[in-house]
Amino acid sequence: MEAISLAKEGKISEAKERLQSARDEVQKAHHFQTELVTKEANGDTVPMSLIMCHGQDHLMTAMVVIDLAEEFIAVYEKIAE
């Protein structure tokens, strides 16, 4: 959301930097998620709790918002041209 606000202000380079930073952080969380899924797929028990479910929801939401932010930044960049 911060990247979108920056793009809206015409700060496209900064917006892209923030977006990349967000992608880097989400990638770390996604890697951990993949480890858990792999563990369960291999037959190991992975405890599922409300907190884990909530965390999964936040990860998925963050991934979607990042994708949408990329589109918004592209639109603001085009408008600025």
Tell me, what is the CATH class? Mainly Alpha
- How many β-strands, per DSSP? 0
Determine the CATH topology: Methane Monooxygenase Hydroxylase, Chain G, domain 1
What is the CATH superfamily? Phosphotransferase system, lactose/cellobiose-type IIA subunit
Uncertain runs:
none
Detailed description of the structure:
This protein has three helices and no strands. By secondary structure, it is mostly helical. The model has no long low-confidence stretch (mean pLDDT 93). The chain has one domain: Phosphotransferase system, lactose/cellobiose-type IIA subunit (Methane Monooxygenase Hydroxylase, Chain G, domain 1, Up-down Bundle). α1 (2-8) runs antiparallel to α2 (12-41), α1 (2-8) packs parallel to α3 and α2 (12-41) runs antiparallel to α3.
Any descriptors?
single chain, 81 residues, mainly alpha, Methane Monooxygenase Hydroxylase, Chain G, domain 1, 3 helices, 0% strand
Describe what is shown at a glance:
This protein is mainly alpha-helical and 81 residues long.
Helices and strands, with pairings:
Elements: H1 2-8, H2 12-41, H3 50-80
